[in-house]
Write a structure and sequence with these properties.
single chain, 216 residues, alpha/beta, Rossmann fold, five-stranded parallel β-sheet, 5 strands
Length: 216
Amino acid sequence: MVYLFLGSDSLSKDGQLKALRQQVLTKETEQFNLDILYGKELALKVLQERLLSLPVRCAQRIIVIKNAQELKSELQEFILHYVKAPAKQILLVLDVSETDRKNTFINQLIKYAKTIHFKDTVKPDSFTLGRQIALRRPDLALRILHQLLQDGEKPERILGGLRYAWEREMAPASESKRRLRLLLNCDIEIKTGRLRPVFALEKLVISLCGLSKPFS
């Protein structure tokens, strides 16, 4: 089976992939039966080896290729040939972040793969991060945080953006004080080197999501 994920909504894609993993794999065997590969750096030999690997105590293995639009031409040709007669023991997920209808590789894949369309989303920012925190959704908040850091956003800008977003909300005074205290502690941990920025920010997000009940 071959899936084609089309679009830039990474959060929804992660949710769909999680559903596939729960459907096909077990927690005990997932580490042996799941490969996450990346299109730009992937070599043909590596992909061929993964496709020939047999599942371990499971009916199928899952192979995910992220940013599949960046695959080298020889890999694109190999995959276009493979998807016409995919191996039954392999569930191949091709994750494409761009939806260029003029892309010949993507257009050919659509003919053979089970295509799932995802919305093209705006780039996440501190406001979307703050919203997920306010709704007490730590899983989504952490994903947005990691995306911001991967995009090169500085920790101090993330903290500043959160504070600015909170100032525009009608949160109870006690809530605002606790948020500010946690934010200041995070800032100190980063500036003093007590924690690496990513760990300090993760700690902040989890702590904030654990405060009182959600509010809109």
